[in-house]
Amino acid sequence: MARQVSRRAPAGASHDPAAVDVLKRIRTALPDLAPSERRVADAVLADPAQAAGLAISALAERATTSAATVMRFCRAVGLTHYPQLRLALAAAAAHENALGGDRPALGTDISAEDRLDDVVRKIIYNEVRALEESCASLDVAELGRAVDAVAGARRIDVFGVGASAFVGQDLQQKLHRIGLIAFIWTDVHAALTAAALLGPGDVAVAISHSGETADAVEPLEAAGELGATTVALTNFPRSSLAAAADIVLTTCARETPFRSGATVSRIAQLAVVDCLFVGVAQRSFDVTATALQRTYGAVQRRKRPAGRRTPSGG
Fold it and tell me: Rounded to two decimals, what is the model's pTM?
């Protein structure tokens, strides 16, 4: 049975907007927004502090839409009226500023005018924030269910394409190193044929930042229909991939147009994969430690002795 994902905002969200990170909720809602509502979201995410100071008509003008659309946007992210949005944005901006340091403006993308040191600051800042926010938003109970399923699985099949394929390969290699039967499928035809062989006692893991990549969604759906336990790793808990999964693990990465599908999403996914792997490894600590030592030793002779390295410039 596919996991049913609620389309409603979290309970109580509208009662204390300053107590939640509205920016995370807006990013989560992006795939479900109408085009005009998404323009409002883009305007808000580009500069939350400035948006917090705008009247509803000014924000509507900035997003080239109407005040009525701004109100629909507020309801779509769990707020009942526009003043709540302004308060929540002000609180989110204040939280970011309280982190201290010389930080890039919220939501800013890399521009042609940025100096190289600006590029470095923006990349590192966004990746660190993705890790912090993913840690805060990751459902540990869901992670525990995923650990239980993987640790007790007959076999584990991982599906992912594009940038997510690298994350899937990392998970497969980690599980294989501790003696679990794990496969990675990055071609949709191979993934679908592999899924057709799964059943009760098996686990299928699909990875997709957007949660809407058909090449990840369809194999997971096929595996679930045959009785396998299905796990989704995605940035959007209301996505098609999440709806197809029994267990949903979420990241919270800030993608920007210039860096869509860039390393920030992979960094967050790899962190969740590490949490999953270590949780599984703990279940048989001594056996795992022995397996890791043996596999580490197997490749040590491939390293060149220090005395044989070629001197620089020689």
Answer: 0.74
